[in-house]
Structure formats: structure tokens, C-alpha cells
From TrEMBL:
Protein name: Probable GTP-binding protein EngB
One Pfam family named in its UniProt record: MMR_HSR1
Native source organism of the sequence: Sphingobacterium corticibacterium
Source organism superkingdom: Bacteria
Entries under Gene3D superfamilies matching the protein: P-loop containing nucleotide triphosphate hydrolases
BP term (GO), one: division septum assembly
InterPro entries, sorted: G_ENGB_dom, GTP-bd, GTP-bd_ribosome_bio_YsxC, P-loop_NTPase
UniProtKB keywords: Cell cycle, Cell division, GTP-binding, Magnesium, Metal-binding, Nucleotide-binding, Septation
């Protein structure tokens, strides 16, 4: 897919105020600082569209972007951000989970995982929760430029193995680097395929 236009639409904390669910939507989620916003910018080739930071906890809202006037891309706050209170964390979790389970036009959730790390409990648990909810997700390993391909492959293999303790099968996996623009075409091609089958949900008139 060629990205012609990528525009910011809105930031929200309220699931009821999101844009109308008339277009297919894709959410990017993962631990704080895993590289969600950077990946989005690399995918659409627009530096600074989604705000990035070296400090975890940068993205705090549900951020909608519209791509080619045809589909929504959503940047979400990260989970597992340690420097916040327990209450705050629980609040965010509820809010993100509500969005993920209630958004009718959400086609697929891209779960981002740091390719430098051994499988982390928090990521595995999150994938299991998505599975339990019956929500479709794919795995995106980030920051591949930070180490050798062998090391990334080892961590991916370990993650697959850990997931197979819970799932019969493991979803598609992408190895990416926002820095080197690696893996972007593959993700966009997947979105393109899913978009072809999108049927807008019927929205009840108030
Ligand atoms: P929160 O919004 O805080 O949850 O973080 P995020 O997941 O959106 O991460 P963000 O894109 O802000 O990136 C965090 C840090 O990782 C920044 O310093 C980025 O420059 C860096 N980073 C992200 N992706 C890559 C990558 O592919 N390679 C390298 N080398 N650095 C990356
Ligand atoms: Mg972010």
C-alpha cells in the first residue's frame, strides 16, 4: 500500500466520543516505550505525526489518525508504565480494555514487543487476555536495528513457544525497525488485505 495522506483526527479519553466507526480501524499497543508512536510514523512516512519520546508514558490518549482518507490508525498509551500510581494504572487499563472490546470497526490489534527482550510476563498476559476476548491480534517485534538478527530471531522463537502454551497457533509475526524502516511494507500489505473485506457496522441512530 502506498500512503498518500496521513492526518491526525482526534485525541480522546472517552470511548463514546471516538470518530464514527465507518472506516476500518487498526490499533497499536504494547508496553510503554516499546516504539508504538515511532512505528506509526515510520509506516506512514511522516516524522512527528505521532508524538514520540525517550521517556516512557508519552502517549496518554486514544489518538486517531486517518490514512489515505480510507482507514484509521490508532496510537494507544503503553501498558506497564512503572512511574505512575497504581490507581492511575488501573484506570488506564480499564479505559484501554473498554476501547479494545467495544470498538465495532476495530479490525486488528497490533501488539508491539521489544525484540531485544526475552518473553515478558506482561506481554504474554496481554496476548492471553486478547485471546480470551476473541480479539484478533498480530505481533510486531520492534527495534530490530538495536541488535543482531540472530538475537531477534531467538527472542521471537521464545515468545512463540511461550504463547503456544496458551494458544493452538500463533498469529503472524513482523520483525520491524522504525529507525531503518524495516517491516513497514509487510504491515501495510496486511492492512490492505483486511481493508478489502471491511463491511461498516450499522450505527444506530439516536
Ligand atoms: P509510549 O507512548 O510512552 O507508550 O511509548 P511508545 O511505545 O510510543 O514509544 P516511542 O515511539 O515514543 O519510542 C520510544 C523510544 O524508542 C524513542 O526514544 C524512540 O526513538 C525509540 N525507538 C522506537 N522505535 C525504534 C527503533 O526501531 N529503533 C531504535 N533504535 N529506536 C527506536
Ligand atoms: Mg507513544
Amino acid at each position: 500500500m502506498f500512503v498518500k495522506t496521513a492526518e491526525f483526527i482526534a485525541s480522546n479519553t472517552d470511548v463514546r466520543k471516538l470518530p464514527e466507526p465507518s472506516l476500518p480501524e487498526y490499533a497499536f499497543i504494547g508496553r510503554s516505550n516499546v516504539g508504538k508512536s515511532s512505528l506509526i510514523n515510520a509506516m506512514v512516512n511522516k516524522k512527528g505525526l505521532a508524538k514520540t519520546s525517550q521517556k516512557p508514558g508519552k502517549t496518554q490518549l486514544i489518538n486517531h489518525f486517518i490514512i489515505n482518507k480510507d482507514w484509521y490508525l490508532v496510537d494507544l498509551p503503553g501498558y506497564g508504565f512503572a512511574q505512575t500510581s497504581k490507581k492511575n494504572r488501573a484506570e488506564w487499563e480499564r479505559f484501554i480494555r473498554r476501547y479494545l472490546t467495544q470498538r465495532e470497526n476495530l479490525q486488528c490489534i497490533f501488539v508491539l514487543i521489544d525484540s531485544r527482550l526475552e518473553p515478558q510476563k506482561i506481554d504474554l498476559e496481554f496476548c492471553c487476555w486478547l485471546g480470551e476476548q476473541g480479539l484478533p491480534f498480530l505481533l510486531v517485534f520492534t527495534k530490530a536495528d538495536k541488535q543482531s538478527g540472530v538475537k531477534s530471531d531467538q527472542n521471537i522463537a521464545k515468545f512463540r513457544k511461550a504463547l503456544l502454551a496458551w494458544f493452538e497457533d500463533v498469529p503472524s509475526i513482523f520483525l520491524t525497525s522504525a529507525e531503518k524502516k524495516q517491516g513497514m511494507e509487510e504491515i501495510l500489505a496486511t492492512i490492505d488485505e483486511i481493508n478489502k473485506n471491511f463491511i461498516p457496522p450499522i450505527v444506530e441512530q439516536q
